[in-house]
Each structure stands twice: as structure tokens, then as C-alpha cells.
Amino acid sequence: MKASRWWDNRERFLQAYAEPSHRMSVQANQPGLRKHVLLKALPGRGRRRNPWTTWLHDELLQEFHRLRKAGLKMSPSMLVSIAQYILTNSHHSEYTRAFTPPGSDIPLYDRLNVRWVQTFQDRFNIVQRKQAGKKQLSPQKQLQIEKEVAFHMGTLKRGFESGEFTNEQMVNMDETHFIVDMDNGKTLSFKGDEHVSYADVVAGSTGMTMVVLLLGGTSAKIGTPMMIFSNASCSYPIRGVPDKVPGVAYRTAQKGFMTSKVFAQWLGESRVIRRLPRQQKMIIWADNYSGHTLTEQANTELSRLNAEVRAFPANATHLVQPADSFVISKIKDAWTKRWEAKKVEMIRAGEWQNTVRSDGSWSGALRNPGKTFYLQLAADAVRDVNAQRTKKGNLTYAQKAMVRCGLATVNGKWSVDQLSDELQMIIADHYDHFMGKPVEDSAVEDESPDQSAGGQEASV
């Protein structure tokens, strides 16, 4: 670069160098030395944008400003929905939903994804603020967990090889907790903003639980979900909320979590779980959460189903439970996408809770769309995930998860190679326990919360 050009643009260059996110320390050519390099091109430089991208970026920025001021909590997936809305309702002479960029056979509408949104965020310095940090287990406790996981994998291997287990017998149930507005405290904002806020939804602290069931066999899929709504008196059905939404069922609990009473009701719900044909015994794999305690009613339902409940190794469901193996995250993604589209719709329609209460107060938040909406949302989210297939093998995500966690075979054969990389490493490190050596009880107390307790909480 010529010195004269650098001098003419020195303010922009110095500003770019001062931005920490634009710089990175890398190894220099000389041993022991490092240098700083720019990660991003300066404004006005870099790859030239297509005119339709520039147009859509500008339109999206205007909507971002407007909706952000309205208090909508923003996320990359929300921006995708907004960009798609702009194209769908565009009055531009050329750039509409049907527009296909020259040289491409894919419409611009179908090319809008989170990666595309990232270029928009980079251009306008829009970032997502988040919190990070996890508690860790002691090395002794981690070792104990790995040994129990290896023994569990060996039990599955021997069970499939002996004929005790079949793919059709294996099912996995788990719970995931949702907050009404799915609030994780994160939203998109411009760098340097000191005040960040967004719209809440009435009763935004009210939780609900989705009971997820993974069915095995050749047509492995996510079964009909059951929602657990919070209700002080545990009334069912709730007045004004008939349990008639196709593809989903519901029950109630005081705090909206799984309890032993609701677990028995789940076992007795014929829309959710049914007896297997040909006198096959169903094996329901679940975590060791206290809500899965078997009551007299639960045992009666298990007898009717010809089923038994088996527990995963404690504190290890993130390793061995198929529902935790990206299936629940896929459901949360589908749920969030539809929920955010609904919130955009509500803001556009002005559905705010501005009615003054008898005490003179009023919330000003978005109206709660109601439990029937959440029932339909749950059914649609599960249906969306069941329709998806993996790029490799064309499997459902439920089938892939069951295979990776050892609860299903591949072409009738169980092998270590089918498992996730982490499980394969654990088996290699504790092969004697995988081959059947019992694991001695550990004297080390685990002070961390049981990851199995109550399933996952969705905070997306």
C-alpha cells in the first residue's frame, strides 16, 4: 500500500487496528516471535456485494432497528425469518420471493440461513451477547462415570448379540423444560450499546415441559410428545384447553415438571405409548430422575404395556441417552424458529397486553398466545424434526441418535464403531469394564447437580 493512500485513510486504519475483534496474534516466521494480523477487511474493501444482497441488507437493517426498538428479542434465526418476510412481502420490481440470482438455480429466499445472516451482522457490527462457563466434575468422579458408561455399553452389546434386545424393543424417554418466551438473556445488538432490552411475553416466567419419546426399529422416529403445563390444582383438562390437538397430548403438574404421578399418566396415555405387537417386551430407557419413581399406578401401566423401565448410568445421560444426542436440540431449534416467527407476527399485529388491571397496573408485554398454541407448536416442532434426514445415510435424527448411543444396531449387528467418538474413547480406556468387569462403588461424592435431574431446560 502506498504511504499517501495510507495517510489519506489513516483514521479508518487506526480504528480497525484498535478493534480487538479485528486482530489476532499468530506465529511469525521467526521462532519465538508473534505478529498481529487483521481478520476483517476495512469498510469499502474486500469482496464486492451483489446488488440484491446490498438491497436486502439495507431493508433488513431498517427492520432490525424497528423491531429492536419495539423490544423484540433478536437472534440469528429470527433475522432469517425477518429477511424471508421482507422478500415475501417485497414490492421491489425485481427482488421478490421468486427472485433467483443470475447463474444460480436456487432462489434467494432459499439461500437465506444463519450463515447469510452472519455476513449481515459482520457488516453492521451486530453481535450476540452470551454467558459461558460450566462446572466441572472432580477427576475421580469423572473416572467413575466413564467406567459405568463402559460397563453399560458392554451390557448393550451382549444383550443385542444374545437376542435379549432388539431394535423394536428399545425406546428412550426424556423431558425438556421450556420457558414461555424461551429467554436465555441473549439478544442481538450493536457493539458498544450500553443498554440492551427486549420484549417479554406475559407470564414469561411460566414453564412447561415436553416429554420426548424416541421409538426404535427400522422406522425410528420421535413419538407423540406430551406437554406438562403448570397448574396449581393439577386440573385436567384445563378449562378452555381441550386435549384434542392432533399429534400431542398434555397433563398438568403444580410446577410444570415431571412427577411420579404424571409419569404414571404418561405411561397410560395411549396416544403417546402403546404395547408392542407379538408379545415383545418394551424396554423404556430413562434417566434416574426422581420424577420417574414407579408408583403402584405406574407398575400397573407397565404391566399393561408389557414394559419395564431401565435407568442410564447416573450423571452420564449426555453421553448415553439418545434424546440428549442432538434430538432435543433439533426440537428446540424447530420450536424456536416457529415461536420467533409468531412473535414477529404478534408485534406486527400490535398484540400487546395494554389492558389496565383492577389495581391500575398493566404489563405492556406481548400477549400470551395461550396453551393451545403451545400444544400445536410442540406437535409441529416434532413433526418438523421427524421430516429431517441426515446428509450421511439418509437417517432420521432419532435413528441416528439411537445408533450412536448403542440402543440400536446397524444392519442387525452391534459394533463399537457405530458409537459416538467419545463413547469409543471411553470403551478403549476401560475395556475391562466393557467386557463385563463390575464397577466398584465410588466413595467420592458428587457435589455437582445430577445432569439427569428433570431433563434439559430449553433456554434458546
UniProtKB/TrEMBL annotation:
Biased composition range(s): Polar residues: 450-460
Domain of life: Eukaryota
InterPro entries: DDE_SF_endonuclease_dom
GO molecular function annotation: nucleic acid binding
Pfam families: DDE_1
UniProt domain DDE-1: residue ranges: 241-348
Region (Disordered): 439-460
Protein name according to UniProt: DDE-1 domain-containing protein
